Amino acid sequence: MSSLIEAKDLCVSRQGKNILENVFIDIKEKDFITIIGPNGAGKSVLLECLMGTFILDSGEIIKKNNLSIGYIPQNFSPDNSMPISVRRFLKLKKKFTLEELQNISEETNISEILSKNLANLSGGELQKVLLARSLLNSPELLILDEPAQNLDIKNQLNFYNLLDRIYKSREISILMVSHDLHMVMASTKQVVCLYHHICCSGEPQVVAKDPEFISLFGNDMAKMMSVYQHTHNHSHENLND
Description:
Elements: E1 3-14, E2 17-28, E3 32-36, H1 43-51, E4 58-63, E5 69-72, H2 86-93, H3 98-107, H4 123-134, E6 141-145, H5 153-170, E7 173-177, H6 181-187, E8 190-195, E9 197-202, H7 204-207, H8 211-217, H9 219-231
Helix pairs in contact: 4-5, 6-9, 8-9
């Protein structure tokens, strides 16, 4: 598979503190990569570097020409002072035909909430709307920063299952930061463990046994990862809130 975006030897620091140290990562076509690591490890900064919104100290970002990227930020709060419907919110991103709206609404399970006020959505509904919005430009690469961090377990499962379906149906690449370690191993193809530098990377079951991973997250988490990867390959049919 050809490369969509590649980071070579990234170094980033702020106020004398190293945030990223000699980071290499290559996202290819049809990749599904999840970045994990402790708080303050530089995960969100790495995403910003890849999107070109964070200044590097050194290193290089190489992108495919005219690469289309969809993005879901870590924190998004609707402005309660300016009521806006889901339909109108999506139109702010791109003008689309009625057929396009219908297709993407069905794909992300938001057809029934298009007329709802954005500020009145549940956490699960809002994340699906943000997912729909990120897909409007038919991206080759979808970047998500902690997309399920404020959701309960049921909605986390629903969101990750929906994301997996979109990944398979669209055959796009996904790069995601997640703290939901108990679910990451079942939904991703490759895991990158980051703590300012890349500690380890590879297939989920391999990373779960890596000494660097165990050092960061502990033996109990590593065992849970292996069990979850082995037993949680069924789908969740109920994708509604």
